[in-house]
Amino acid sequence: MNQPTPPGHCNPENGATETGSPTAMPAHPTDRLVAVVIDEVSIGRSSPAVDHERQVAIHDLIEENSFALPGQTAGPYALNLSVVERRLVFDVRDADNADTVVAHMLALSPLRRAVKDYHLICDSYYEAIKTASPRQIEAIDMGRRGLHNDGSTLLMERLAGKIEMDFETARRLFTLVCVLHWKG
To answer: What is the arithmetic mean of pLDDT over 22-46?
Structure first.
């Protein structure tokens, strides 16, 4: 679901046009997320624009994803995201969101730079839209997509061996991580 994005932020989810490749479907129908819940306490209050971006990011992630847990029971799963002691917590639960299957904690510091760089280039992109030539806007947008891909790859690397996902799912998850850290 691609919604218009508010000034100051850019929605990186443009499906296959972003990477030039189609979204892979899960290898098994149960290897997927059916719900994503954000711990609002650990994220804090935000503007209506940020809340909207979170909702869009969650919808996009649930709509298309491939998400499996090596060595664990088959899904589908519910993902609860929170920040605890400067760590991003992936609390993966059963589809009913009742019981935790596994929880993984990632230090935020390796992701923080990727998120910050991504937000900076998004700000540049929206400033460029106002006055820059189409060629300049396209160049900034290519850089934005590249940073988003780099952040997605970093997230996949940090979760390697813990959570298996395709690249498009990693892109959507990185989008959500970016939106979680966007203060608006």
So the answer is: 72
